[in-house]
Amino acid sequence: MNSMSDEEFFRGIREDIIDYTSKMLGDAGSSCDKKRSTKVTTTKSGINDAQLKVEAVPKDNNGEPQAKVPMEFVSLCSESHHEERKGTPAEVATVPDTVEHSKCDEQNDEPPLGSPEHSPKIEPLNKGKKSKEKEKKAAFRKQLEVKAGEAMQAKRAEKKASKNTQRTSANANGDMIDKVAMEMVSLEITSNREQSDSESDDNQSPSNATKKYQAEGKKKGKEPKGNQQQAKQRETTTKGAIGRSVSTSSPHDPPTVSQDPLGALSGKLQDIMVEISNLRKDYFANSSRTSNAPATPETPKKEKKKSTESTRKERLHSTTDDVSLPPEHKLLVQLFMLSSSQRKKYIERQGIELGLLTPHPYKKHVVLVNNRLQPAVEGLMYEAKRYLAETSGPSTQAATAATVTPRKNGEKPATPGRTDSASKSKHESRGTYEQQVNFLLNDGNWRTEDRYDPERTLVGVRNEANEIIQERLESFVAGLVERKVGYMVEGLLRINSRNNMQSFVDDASRIGNIYINSILLRRCAMEGDRVRVFVLSDAQSDDEAEEEETEVGNRSVLPEEDVSMTVKSQNNAGFVVSLLEKRHNRQCVGKFLPAAPGKKHYRMFMPRDMRIPPVRVFKQDWPNALLESRKDTAVESESVQASVPDVTEVLYQAEIIEWQDEVPIGTILKSIGKCGDLEVENESILVEHNLDVTPYGEEILAQLPAVPYCIPDEELARREDLRGECIFTIDPATARDLDDALSCKRLANGNFQIGVHISDVTYFLREGSPLDELVKLRATSIYMVDTVYHMLPKQLCNTCSLLPGEDKLAFSVFWEMDAECTVLSTRFARTVINSCSQLSYEHAQLMLDNPSGKGLDVDQFPEILHGYTVQQLCEIVNTLQSIAVKLRQRRMDDGCLKINQPKLTFRLDPSTGLPTAYGVYQMRTSNELIEDFMLLANTSVAHATHKAFPATSLLRSHMPPAENMMKNLARTLANHGYALSCASSKDIRECMEAIITHAEEPDATRSVLSVLLAKPMMRALYYCSEYATTARQFAHYALAIPMYTHFTSPIRRYADCLVHRVLAAALGIDVTPTRTPEELQCLATICNDKKYNAKVAGEASSMLYFRHWLEAAGEQEVDAAVMSYAAHFIEVVLIHTGIVLKAATKKLSKTATVVFKPIEPTGSCLLVPNDRSIPPLQLTLFTKVRVTIKLVKDVITVCSMLPIVDLKPSAKAPAEISNDNFNKDMKSARVF
Questions:
Q1: Which of 175, 238, 278, 1003 could make a disulfide contact with 76, Cβ separation 3.0–4.6 Å?
Q2: Does domain 460-536+571-581 have CATH number 2.40.50.690?
């Protein structure tokens, strides 16, 4: 039997019936309206509808329909019902008369109703029995013609009887048409059945056939007896009604309403429904016969679903029969095709049925291994893990690739399971520490251990507790070094801030850095830890290096971590052998993620520092708020959850206590507060950067000198008294810690004596004291937007601060200089000073702008003590400026490189602490004046201390920038038509100045170059002189100074205090410091870390307040400069603030369209505004544009970008407020 779905089966029946009936009744109605006088003839006796057939279907010898032929309709009625449907011999005998009457009607002028002219042409398929079928068709059509005429006459009679029931008539007419259509179905079905019976095997009589169908009906399942009896009763009544109607009417008399043809048709409709139900049962029985799954449909929808399932089962059974698989193979395929959750349920249920697993006694959804199997569980698990480790190589990949159909990029696999690895990088980050090391040492290929080079295979380094034995690992690495496979390097670990899987260690012996590409390969070391790394010594070829340089050069300049990603993992690749020093405190700030389904025993904690992976916190370490909220349970109602604070919006401080493979395990230390609050956010910044701001205890404060402090007479006797000299301070207007003061006087020989006087903090902060032990851990003052966290107790800060009119202890440096500013002599002394005035940079600038001092307003300046006047101070300030200019020029000639970046200042609301305005601090000439003399003092002290104590002096060095990054920057600028020489700091500065001078937009060019040049620059670091051996290690690259240190800010930097002690010992006026070079180097490291963390925290605080200001202000239009661009983004620098933003081109579509073409070497980027009145702009490096920024989900976002068409100065933006007026307003604000 040809396969045909049940949907196609019944769709064909329905379409044929509707088309045929609609056409016939439509033509019949129109013909009756046109020819009302035409008589409609009918047969005198009932016609057996079983003898009429619409379409003959050819069959094969077995009675089955042939291919591509509509399916045969076979009745499954009972024997009595079958005989009743066949009709009586008298009814059969009336067929020839009907045929003759039909032929007479065909000779009339008007074709009769139901003739071929009014009905669709149906071509019989069986040509041998053409004449017989034509006679049956004619009789069939004539009978339909009679019934249609009767229906139309009944309709007209109803309309004449009551015109008010027009709507009811229409509905009756529609019901009548539907019933006539269903009667046609009955006629067609029964005629097909009789035709099928007549063409079947001659040896089988109709009675036998009926018995056969009856038997099959009993076997397959039939209608209930009650339904069959009702159908028989209705059919008998209908046939009687039709017979009476036909026998009592004349062939030429029109039908009347009393004959009730609709009642007869309703009975036919019931018979049709029974017949269709039997046909469906027969079809479903035949389709499911091969699968031995009998289908007894209850409703049509269920029958269709079960038929589809039986067909699918038949296909699956046929497929599995063709492919014979062992039971274990079948099980593997079944598990593979299931999803992870289905696979788990399948294994658990099968395991419980087999007795291998048991449900947990009181925990739902938890299944345990049966106790009797516990001794063998560990061995089975070990075998499975070993198998995975041995087969996780390229051979497995090849086998998998051979069974998977190749697909295009981005195309999803056809199977629900997936065995091919996504990328090489994912392979490299999988497996244990030993497996990843073996992968790295064996050319980056996954193999089993027996296929690796034995000399390059790390095995047997763990003990029974699965811990790595350091001695065995060291021995293995020593063998690699001996065979010159690689070499060892010690250094500080740096982790990519955007991908915590990638880390780097500086390698001074090579151009590139050491790249470590997984957490396990770095032994779970964290940012800043000192590690010992094994580095592969395999050098790349010149061709490879050239290709990599080309690839990097075509991209925008990125941070060092991103640039190294273009280099192959084999180049400068390594792994951590040992963790020498844990310098990271293993603490972080973040918030809990929403509970994962089924993970009720732990929650994931997401640190804000992206260099730390998500931390797993188990339930016993949860905070009380999380235990009370029960956010991880899905059974609580929404009202209960709404009443409990959401712990996912609370910031916590966490600590990592251990690692499980690559996952850190942590515990919660404390709750900081709710996200978004300014005070909470500021505190989180401090905690995140490991900055201690805890107030000093009472026992420490009790040891401090009294306020006001009175200098003892014996101390005055040991010091040089300068209280009568004209000494003054120049600091920011809001400064309270006054570290330094200046003096200048002309000597009798015509030379100048310049003095820099620094607060003598070490007189009070003695080495090894309880206060000193606490201060050395803080190492620096922290300058946030809303406050300052002092390194020293505030009481001691006020005692040491060089406030005017007070006697203060100082450490002074004096230079004698001639008219050419050549330093003739230098001396150091401990002094006592009394400042005559506290000037701000604004006051000093007014003096520099008016050198004569005649136009100065005395009321604009603070009080000047000791009999000095504003004009006298103005003369001294201008003398110092003339000397500073020459000193500055000398440093520039030596190659000083200065990269200034904007610094934000804010005006705060005194009541709420929220920012109301912001500005950018501008560097003036007065700032440079102070800077020049502080640099000179630091340089002089560095040489003096190193000369006296070459092993224990604290110095500060700045290494040259990363060579590879500078080459990439030079190549990028060259592609845009700009030349940059990296030979020295002087060449870099001169090239930078030349580019800015010849640029169309100097301010935009300066902003971009400052950002680009800051990226490859190294951090300046403190170090103990014992650990520096070459001139390059001593030198300060940016200042172009051979030796440098910090001496001028002891109130806010602990490193300066260490230098003061060494200088006092060098002068013989104090004891020699007792700390060893190792201890001094450790202190230098602390100072480096704290200073950098404080700088980053201050910048983060500025960005926090800027975001809050922007959120309150809404959208802001500012000028920006293009720094880089690609197909999907444009990176810009906000000119006045120095903030770098990346604008997605999709978000700019509301105002402009970005057209990018990848044209070598830089690409073409065209900005086309939607406003056609604004011309398009070709974007290149340093292009100045106007952008609109706003805060979206706490992120500063560029929402529009347009060319600058109006270059006239507009109203001052907040960033462009005059600094003079701004600082006047700032004096009363809490801004530091």
A1: 278
A2: yes
Q: What is the largest CA-CA distance in the chain?
A: 157
Q: 641 in the Ramachandran plot: left (φ > 0), alpha (ψ -120 to 50) or beta?
A: alpha
pLDDT at 1230: 34
- The string of DSSP letters for 877-939 reads HHHHHHHHHHHHHHHHHHT-------EEEEEE-TTT--EEEEEEEPP-HHHHHHHHHHHHHHH
Q: Which two tokens stand for residue 25?
A: 């009744």
Domain boundaries, the chain: 460-536+571-581, 585-624+646-675, 698-960+1018-1104, 1114-1203
Counting as low any pLDDT under 50, the low residues of the chain are 1-3, 32, 34-129, 163-170, 172-174, 185, 188-227, 231-232, 234-259, 290-302, 304-305, 316, 319, 393-429, 539-571, 631-644, 1209-1232
Residue 377: predicted pLDDT: 76
Spatial separation of the C-alpha atoms in residues 95 and 202, rounded to whole Å: 24
Q: Which residues contact 233 (CB under 8 A, 6 or more apart)?
A: none
- Cα–Cα distances (Å) from 287 to 10, 12, 67, 313, in that order, read 15, 18, 16, 11
What does pTM read for this prediction?
A: 0.63
3-state DSSP assignment of residue 816:
strand
Q: What is the CATH number of domain 1114-1203?
A: 2.40.50.140
- Which pLDDT value is given to residue 730? 96
* C-beta separation of 1078 from 884 below 8 A: no
Position 426 scores a pLDDT of 40
Rounded CA-CA distance 257/336 in Å is: 71
Using CB atoms within 10 Å of the CB of residue 516, give its burial: 0 to 12 exposed, 13 to 18 middle, 19+ buried: buried
Dump pLDDT digits (tens) for 90-132: 333 333 343 344 444 444 444 444 444 444 443 443 444 455 5
Q: Which two tokens stand for residue 1109?
A: 């200001």
Q: Are residues 59 and 178 in contact, defined by beta-carbon separation less than 8 angstroms?
A: no
H helices within 323-445, ranges in order? Answer: 327-337, 340-354, 374-391, 394-403, 424-428, 433-441
Q: How far apart are the first and last CA of the chain?
A: 93
3-state secondary structure of 194: helix
1070-1102 burial code (b ≥16 CB/10 A, e <16)? beebebebeebbebbbbbbbbbbbbeebbebbb
616 phi, psi to nearest 5 deg: -95, 120
Question: In this structure, what are the phi and psi dihedrals at residue 744, rounded to the nearest 5 degrees?
Answer: -155, 130
CB count, 10 Å around CB of 1169? 18
Contact in structure between 770 and 702 (CB atoms under 8 Å): no
Report d(CA 564, CA 553) in Å as an integer. Answer: 12
Equal CATH topology for 460-536+571-581 and 585-624+646-675? yes
If one counts every other C-beta atom within 10 angstroms of the C-beta of residue 801, the result is: 20
Domain 585-624+646-675, CATH among 2.170.120.20, 3.30.9.100, 3.40.50.2000, 2.40.50.700? 2.40.50.700
Q: Which pLDDT score, from 0 to 100, does residue 1231 have?
A: 35
